[in-house]
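Q: Fold this one first, please.
A: Sequence and structure below.
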Amino acid sequence: VKNASILVVDDESNIRLLLEEILTEEGYQVTTASNAAEARDARLSEEYDLILLDIWMPETDGISLLKEWAKKGSLEPVIMMSGHGTVDTAVEATRLGAVDYIEKPVSLVKLLRTVDKALFHTRTKKGQQGKLVPPSVTPVGKSKVMQALRDQVAQVAKHDSNVLLVGEPGSGREMVARYLASFSDRSTEPFVTIMAEALNNENGGLSFSGSTENPSAIDRAQGGILFINEIGKMPLHAQNSFSDILKQA
C-alpha cells in the first residue's frame, strides 16, 4: 500500500533518519517527530495512515503518548518500537491499541513486513477499492531489480497462461508465484502446491488423476493455480501424464 503517510516518532536522530530514508525509498510519505510535543503537533496538522512510535523517550514516553491518544479515540494504527522492550510492555501497548511491536535495532525485512501488514489490514477494514496484496506474499526489496520483478509479475498476471519461474533453490519462487496469483483474476481461487520429485511411480497417478473421495491436485486447483515446485525434477512418467493434461487444457 504505497503512497501511505507515516509519522515516525523517535528521540534518536539516527533512527529517525534511517527510517525516513527506508520508508521514503519504498514510496511512503514520511514525517518525523523527535518527541511527544512534535508528534502531537504533527497529528493536529495532518492525518496519517500509520504511526511508528518509540517507547523510551524523555519527558513523555511512547506508552503514555499512546494512552493519551487512545483516550481521545479515532486512533490510527500504531506500531511501537523499542530497544529495551519486555513482554509486559508489548502486552500493555497492544491493550492500548497498538497493532504491532518492533524491536531495535530494526531489521529492514521486519520493518517493511510489519508496515505493509498494518497498512494492508487497515485499508481492508476501510473497504478501499483496488487490488490489495497481502504482505506475506510481496517480494521485499527497494533495489531496481526487485522493483522491476514486481512490475513484471504484475504484468504477467494479466494474461491467462502457463508461467515458468526460474531460480536457485531458496530464491523464493513460490512466493513470486503467490504474488503473481494475488494480481490475477484467480486471486480468490485455490492455490495448490505439489513437489515434482514426489511424483514417483507409486503416487504420481494420484496427483494428476483422482476421484470424488480422493481429488487430484488438478481437481483441487480447478479455477485457480497449480504450482509445481522443482518441476525440473519431475519423473519421466509424470512428465508424460502432465504433458497430456496441458494439451487438454
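Q: Good. Now the second chain.
A: Here it is, same layout.
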Amino acid sequence: MSSIQITLPDGSEQTVAAGTRPLDVARSISPRLADAALVARVNGDLYDLTRPLTADARLQILTNRDADALEVYRHSTAHLLAAAVLELFPHTRLGVGPPIENGFYYDFERDTPFTTEDLEKLEAKMWELQAQDLKYERVLTPKPEGLEKYRKLGEKMKVELIEEKADDIFSEYTLGPRFIDFCRGPHVPSTTSIKAFKLLSVAG
C-alpha cells in the first residue's frame, strides 16, 4: 500500500498509508482530540473525518472551538431532524436544511403543517436516534441515477436542486434506514457527536 505525507498545523509531518482517515490521524495525536473532533480541514477545504485521504495533504482537525466546525454541527443536526421527521411522518417531502447563524432550519412539504406537539415528538425522536450512534455516510451518485431515484420517491424539490446544482457525480449523505439527501457535506461522523439541540418553532 502506498504512503502519503500529512502536514499538521504546527508544521510537523506524519507518513501514513493512503486511505487513512482524518479521524485516524486525530487518534494518533490524542484520544481527547479524536473525541472532540467534528470535522477536518484538508488543503483548506472542509472534509469528513471518516473520508479517506488519498494524497499528500495539509490537515487540521476542527472541534467546537472552530466556527466552521459549529456550522457543520448545525448542518448535521438539521439532517438528524429530517431523519426524525421521516421516521414519524414518512410521507413528508424534503426541501433544504442549511445551518444559520444561531442554529438551523429545514424546509418540509406535507399536507398539514407541523404543530407544537409535533415538535415535542420530533425532538424526542431526535434524541432517540442520537443515542443509536448512527453514521453520516457519504455516497457518490451519478446525476442520471440520482434524478431517477428522487423522481421515483416523489421528491420534486430534490429533483429541482439536483438539476440546477449537482455535478455529473454528486454526493449524498445517508443517516439511518430512511434518510438520504443530496448534500455536499461535510458532516460530523455520527449522531453521538451531537450533544445539544432544541427545536424552537414552526414556520409556514
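Q: Anything worth noting on the second one?
A: The mean pLDDT is 94.
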